[in-house]
Amino acid sequence: MSLSCKRLLATSAKGYKSNQQFNVFDRHSKLIQRSRVPKANPQESRKVDYLKNEVAIKTIERLAFITRSFDRVLDFGSHSGNFLKNLCEESKVPENGDDVDRQIVEQLNKDKKNIRSKIRELTMFDSSEALLYRDADESFNKDFEGKIVRQIGDEESFDHECLEQSDQYDAVISNLSLHWINDLPKTLTNINRVLKPDGLFMAAILGGDTLYELRTSLQLAELERYGGISPRVSPLVHLNDIGSLLNRAGFSMLTIDTEDIIVGGFPDIVSVCKDLQLMGEQNSVLSRANSLPRDVLLAANEIYKALHGEKDQNNNTTLPVTFSVIFMIGWKKSEAQPKPLPRGTGEVNLKDIL
C-alpha cells in the first residue's frame, strides 16, 4: 500500500475530524533541521539553494501560461523566499550559450516581469523563522513592486490568522515543502478552503524515485553488513496518487507532470549527505535510526560508485543525485469554470478523425 493511501485511511471521511492521524514524520525534528544552518551559517545555507531555485524557475515558467491577475498570493512553505528571489532577479545567459539559450533567457525575463506585475500582495508562510527571514534584507525584496508579508506558523495546523479565513487568496504556490506533511489530504483540503472560487493551486513536491541512488546504496550496504535495513530515506508520494489526492481535496481541471532534476559531480556519499543536511532535507521519519554506522557508510559509498558512478573529464568517479519533482496544478471549483458537455452531444465522430 502506498504512503498516500495510508494517509487517506488514517483520516475520517467527514472533514478529517478524526483524532487518529497517521504520522510518518517528526515535525519538531524537521523544524530544527531546517532552521539550524540558516541561523548559524546563512552563507552555507545559500550554497545549497540550487534545487529550490531550479524548481522556482520551473514554477515561474508554468505560471507564465496563465493570463489572469493574482491580487493575493500565498507562498505556502516558502523557505527563504526562493520563488520571490527568482521572480525578481534577472536570469543570465549561460557561458558559451547560443542564440537559442539567449532567446529562452530573454523570454524568461519577460515572463518574470509580467508575473510580478500581476501580484499585488505576496504572503510568505513557513514554520522556520530563521529560514523565512534569512534573506529578508536582500536587494531582490525591493525589486518587488507589490506588498510582501512574512508569516511564521505550522504548515499542518492551519491555525494562523492568515489561514483562518476561507476564500481569501487568488493563488497558492508551494515548492518543495509538502513532502514533509504528515496529513497531506487534510492540508490540501485546507489549501482549497483558503482559495477564492476558481483560485489556482500550483505546487511542486519531491516524490517517486527521488534519491534512489542513495536509497538503494544504503539498503544494499546495510543488508550486507547486518542482514536488514533501516528507514534511512524518508518515504515519498507517488505520481499516481497525486490526482486522487487533489480530487479528494476538491480541486478540478488538474494538470500533473513530473521532471527529474539530476545533480552530478559529488565526490563521495558523504558530500551527498552533507548537502542534504545543509538543505534541511535529511531524514526525519519517526522510526529512523539514531546513527549511521561507519562500516555501512563506507560500503554504501563503494556500492554507490559501482552502480551509479560517472566519470568526469579527469577520469575520476563522481556521484549523481536524482530529484524526482512532481508538478501539480489544480483549480478550486467554481460555477464560472468551463464544464464538459453532456454525453452524446458531440458533433464529430472520432472514428472519422483517427
UniProtKB/TrEMBL annotation:
One of its GO terms (cellular component) is mitochondrion. One of its GO terms (molecular function) is methyltransferase activity. Keywords: Methyltransferase, Transferase. GO terms for biological process: methylation; mitochondrial respiratory chain complex I assembly. InterPro entries: Malonyl-ACP_OMT, SAM-dependent_MTases_sf. PANTHER family: ARGININE-HYDROXYLASE NDUFAF5, MITOCHONDRIAL. This is Piso0_004591 protein. It comes from Pichia sorbitophila (strain ATCC MYA-4447 / BCRC 22081 / CBS 7064 / NBRC 10061 / NRRL Y-12695). The lineage of its organism: Eukaryota, Fungi, Dikarya, Ascomycota, Saccharomycotina.
